[in-house]
Amino acid sequence: xxxxxxxxxxxxxxxxxxxRPGHKRHGLMWEFPGGKVRPGESVEEALRRExxxxxxxxxxxxxxxxxxxxxxxxxxxxxxxxxxxxxxxxAFEHLAVRxxxxxxxxxxxxxxxDRQFASVCLQSERTEPED
Length: 131
What we know:
Elements: E1 2-11, E2 14-19, E3 30-31, E4 34-36, H1 43-55, E5 58-70, E6 76-86, E7 96-100, H2 112-121
Parallel strand pairs: 1-6
Antiparallel strand pairs: 1-2, 1-4, 2-3, 2-7, 5-6
């Protein structure tokens, strides 16, 4: 298995998602941002590097692993990790970024592993009332 990290970033009751470029696996679908863990790199180091490179964000805290999902049809095992960040996300490697309420995730074209994670791990948040 190839380890991959995905940052679950929350602000004001919303989570950050990013749209994959069309030429990549699951192109044009939405995902929790992140990427492959390089050999010798920790999950925390990979999150810091990937979120800086992809979105221009500075990771201020790496919290718990919220879920682990195997991306069917690939060798990727994705760890969805709660992180805190500073900065405003910018789409350097994605087509777009969006802040969405967890309950909105079911209406979006999420990459399969991200959909599986969101449907199981963010289930309780999808029923919270809007403010």
